[in-house]
TrEMBL record:
The keyword Repeat does not apply. It is found in: Membrane. Residues 1-88 form the Late embryogenesis abundant protein LEA-2 subgroup domain. It holds the Pfam family LEA_2. InterPro entries: LEA_2, NDR1-like. It comes from Prunus dulcis (Almond). GO terms for biological process: defense response to other organism. It is a single-pass membrane protein. Keywords: Membrane, Transmembrane, Transmembrane helix. GO terms for cellular component: plasma membrane; plasmodesma. This is Late embryogenesis abundant hydroxyproline-rich glycoprotein family.
């Protein structure tokens, strides 16, 4: 599983290898934890002011993108590998924590 974080469509961090391969049973949830790394946010003065203004209003919105290779198992039949992608907007407060409005939010998922 790989992930990237964006602020206003500019990538500000990424991580690869969040999880080793594993089997997940049906109707199950797996919690993933990790830290994004990367260069510091390189923006012009206008973009920096947008960030500062968002933060002063109490909410900064980041977009998280995740992708992973998955296989489906239906009884004894295994599918070929598919690349699954998920995109989520996450609202972060001035304290750096995810705001309640973003918790339990359903995110769009698509396959390639």
């Amino acid at each position: 599983m790989d992930g990237s974080a964006y602020y206003k469509d500019q990538r500000i961090g990424s991580i690869s290898g969040l999880l080793p391969p594993f089997y997940q049973g049906p109707k199950n949830t797996t919690i993933v934890a990790g830290s994004f790394t990367g260069a510091t946010l390189t923006v012009n003065s206008q973009r920096w002011m947008e960030f500062i203004n968002d933060r002063s209003r109490g909410t900064v919105v980041f977009r998280l993108e995740f992708s992973a290779t998955i296989r489906f198992r239906i009884q004894s039949w295994d599918s070929k590998r598919h690349r699954m992608h998920a995109n989520c907007d996450v609202d972060v407060g001035q304290d750096g924590f995810i705001l309640p409005v973003s918790k339990d939010r359903r995110c769009p998922v698509y396959f390639t």
